[in-house]
# Entry
Amino acid sequence: MADAPLLELRGITKRFPGVVANDHVDFELAKGEVHALLGENGAGKSTLMNILYGLYHPDEGEIRLNGKPLRIDSPRAAIDNGIGMVHQHFMLIPVMSVAENIVLGVEPHSGPFLDLDTAQARVRELSERFGLAVRPEARIDSISVGMQQRVEILKALYRGAEILILDEPTAVLTPQEAEELFAIVRSLQAEGKSIIFISHKLNEVLKIADRITTLRFGKEVATVPREGATQEGLARMMVGREVVLRVEKPPAQPGEPLLVAEDLIVVDDRGLEACRGISLEVRAGEIVGIAGVDGNGQTELIDALTGLRHPASGRIVVGGRDVTDATAREVLDNGMGHIPEDRQLRGLVLDFSLAENLALHDFRKPPDSRFGWLFPRRLVQRARRLLAEFDVRGGGPETPAASLSGGNQQKVVVAREVSRDPRVLLAAQPTRGLDVGAIEFVHRRLVTERDEGRAIVLVSFELEEILSLSDRILVLYEGRIVGEYQPDVSEEELGFAMTGGLENEAA
Amino acid sequence: MADEPRASTGSAVTEWFSTRIGGVLVPVAATALAFLIGGLVVAITGNNPITAYKAIFAGTGLNWFFPWVSGDARADAANDLQQTLILMAPLILTGLAVAFAFRCGLFNIGGQGQYWVGFIAALYVATNLEGTPRPLHVLLAIVAAIVAGGIWGGIAGALKATVGAHEVITTIMLNWIAIFGGTYLYEIGGPLQGPQESIPRSDEVFESAELWPIWGSLPALHAGIFIALFALVVYSVILNRTTLGFEVRAVGFNPEAARYSGISVSKNYFLALAISGAFAGLAGGIDLLGFKFSVDVGDFGTNFIAFTGIAVALLGRTRAVGILFAALLFAALEVGTSTRQLDPEVFEPALAVDLATMIQALVIFFVGAELLIVYIWRARTLLRPGQAAQPELKQ
Amino acid sequence: MSTQSRTALLGNGVRRLTEPRTIAILGIACGILAFWLALPPWTVRSVGGPLAAGFVALACGIAVVPRGERKLGWWAIALGVAGTLGAIWLQTKEAETLDSILTAGVLASTLRFATPLAFAAMGGIFSERSGIVNIGLEGMMLMGAFFGVWGAVWSGTWVVGLLMAMLFGGLLALIHAFFSIHLRADQIVSGFAVNFLALGVTGFLYSSIYPGGIETEVSRVPNVQLDFLYDIPLVGDLLGGVFGWIMFAVVILSYVILFKTPIGLRIRSVGEHPKAADTVGISVYGVRYGAVVTSGVLAALGGAFLSIGFVGTFTENMTSGRGYIALAAVIFGKWLPGWAFAATLLFGFGFALAIPLQREAGISENLISTLPYVLTLVALVGLIGRSIPPAAVGRPYVKG
# Structure
């Protein structure tokens, strides 16, 4: 690393209304290096990389490539300078083929016509060179998430990228797929590519990176070599204090079963069976975690349990009552609480006031309304009480939900669901995108509700969350429950089950 | 055209904006800008925009409100104002027809068809049932108009709710079906043609079904204006004080979140369009019973009142009070530019009618593009150092 | 090896023939045939033929519905029944009457009605494929109709008329583009305002430039009579005018550009996933501006056909809703040029039937005129499940 760095970011500052996303951040990348950028959600990692990729423009600071200052004002400029980026949310067009996605913008052509044959040939060649095993003629929506990520990598390589930014690349992958990704990263490194690896997972950073730079609240904390770095040390830098990785909770005292599902078969929007015979039982006073990689039937299972989608066959019983054919409203009224996966899209009506959002289920019933007649003042009274109880900051009952921070928005959703005194509480990805404080709040609250005697179902893609909260863990794979574990199970064992390892073994 | 929350991209900007300046400025600025550009057009054609606008204003009858106008001028102004108010009533209603659907996230372009279907239904009732006592006959005809308009809107709603057919397309199709269908009913040889075989015109309504005249005689301002004002109240109450309105607004802002809270999105789509249709149908009903009394087939293709209703709803920002003022503005503009009111020596009415259309279009543009006004506002604040306004979203 | 693969190929062919989908399509064809048999040029005057075809359709439908081909199967059943009933009803009509309704003239006027729709529909496809809803097609057509006449009168030649039409149609589209792309206005609202604006502007200009109407002879787009084509019945009618040729070229070009060139790939990518396009350096705004302006130019050509291609004059609001029908054709045709063109032909046929039906069968022209619209509604109900719009259509794109 004695050479001059390939890429230097000096004093990068980027302000958004109300926040300084990057505050004089320095970062450098040597040729052939894997340099991890570590930080919590909202620490400014993505902003920094979006600046490097020309999607944002820094308010201050400079970028140098090979020692020369460089202006990157568009992705095109980044691409032209050999910088490629694999975004956390893939930038792929589902209805087009792999080859079309890869050549988009730099299409090979003969005369005015698109030369798809050449495109496919080049993609195949590149894919073989880096051992990516991608089929160029496949449609994006027909290939797996891991494969889609390789398409993204190929997209950057096709454009001659020498520097590759991987933004939270393992977030959507199974542990096994992540291993495959690490192998790909190493082979890229062997070919002389330089890689910026963005992550908030300590173990994988330690596994793959040569150097690690930590960001906190938009400021650079430190850059350290991998040698000598420890999980604890990195965690302290990242969060600024000791992190409690496990939630403190007394042992569960399970009571009667409140949620029972038997042989659920649920069909997805495309008419395919997404849940293929799921049976589960959740008792009062326990948290059951449902682990699994995204897309293995979680959405459809949640929809079925909450009455949003009717199962093709099977039975659902909530609190002793059969709700298999009930509407979503009946299920909710029968003691189901639901913290949906995406609070902005599904949990809240952002243009509604907090009072209205808190009444989103109960506005039909007295005291909110009578004979279809609504009493707005009662909505406000209730809201005032709940906002105080759940310590929601940033607005009163009349404030639109849109103007709250993510953590406070989630508190509103939790307040609404918990205040309805549900027998079953279903939490889907309840901490996604929240900062540490808010995560702790949600976790503690779920445990409190458990101890109140509710049956809690936790669906999450974060193994750590599942492991630290659950009293029992069910693993969902391809629409089936493939295993049940106690919370002291190892990540490896869970990961094995999540990727169908058990099924393959049985076969 | 996906069912995404329509407000998602604009809401933060809108909020930033409305908390600082209030929701009144955009419509006012948009109107001013539209009239300014309209004035430029007038100037380009070699007329003096100020005299032209003055002449148009004189025809609206709005000067009746000025206490210093007296004598003959006052009588003239009263006549003109009656015409403006006659037109304002259906404009309020067609505006509500657009606004109510809008609150549910739907764009009801089918007000014109709903208007005609309501009109025809009322006409059928009002030309039959001879001998029904007056208040009852009026009531029956109006109910027929509301129900027919509701059904016509409800068809689009049902198609949206069941198969997801986009309401813009279906309501446009329903417009044309109503227009051609109506023409067919009263054309020469048509099944409901009136007494004169050579004239494609309907029967006249019975006197017992006519709305009561309340002011003037040329034609008189009729009781329909009260019905329209009452409808404004109903609209506001439904939206803000009933569970139905709560559901409609929730679906309009975020159908997905509404669905997750157990609200039936399709039911609300259906209801919203049916209620919208009822408002538009009512507009047709009061026009018939208030001053038209019959229909000529030529009317079907030349009436754009529900399209103006779209401008009314947008300019009024779908708020009851806003719709009231917007309807008054557009009614006045239309009356002021009509052949009957405008002095051809000052400004050619043939041009003025089109000028009014242009101004309406510009108003829709400018109200629809709040960002434009935001940009202009920001350009102003940027001049003050250290106070750079930042409405951009972090996305 | 080669024989093997050939057998496999043959096997595939046979398998394809027995697939439910194929049978269902056969059923649908038979249903249509049942009705058609009673019409010229066959004009079968007995119930047997249509009945037989109808039964085949019914059988095909009943056979495939339980095998999973629900939608097409039901179509086959419905068409079988409707076609047979229709054919039986037609038996009550004189053969001569039918002959005089379904003349070659009807086909020619089908094309004449379809031509402006086809131009606007192709325009609509470009705009919507790039992610911008364009209900302003109506107004852009109206601009084309007026400025076509204006250019032709002013210069004395239709060529300038066409150029002016395209120029002003494109300019109006530019306004729509600016409001929907840069100002992120609701695209439906903006498109609607475009229609209103065009109505006002063309009316205003028409009244001020031609206060007494257009008195001079307007230079019209000529018919090129290619003798060898003209001698063939029908074809001569169909391909008589320059406009017909331009239209076919535009339809084919639209397909080629959208699906066979890099530009098309970029347009579609912007309409599906603008951020993805942005991150590979494609200018989302640039592509959208280009596509919307193209749509205005094409729609204006359609409008110009109405004025200088056909009647040779302008009247206020002369497009009278054709832009909206073109939009329906776009959806009907699933945003594909070929299918959208087919949809415009279907609408054109509906309109073309109105006049002879009134003349010969005494059915009200106005009643028949509702048919294309009813048809669209029915089609929306039947087809909508398969009709998936570009993913990002109607949504403004915020950079960065």
About this structure: Residues 146 and 362 of chain C are 35 Å apart (CA to CA). The radius of gyration of chain C is 24 Å. The mean pLDDT of chain C is 83. Chain C touches chain B through 53 residues (CB under 8 Å).
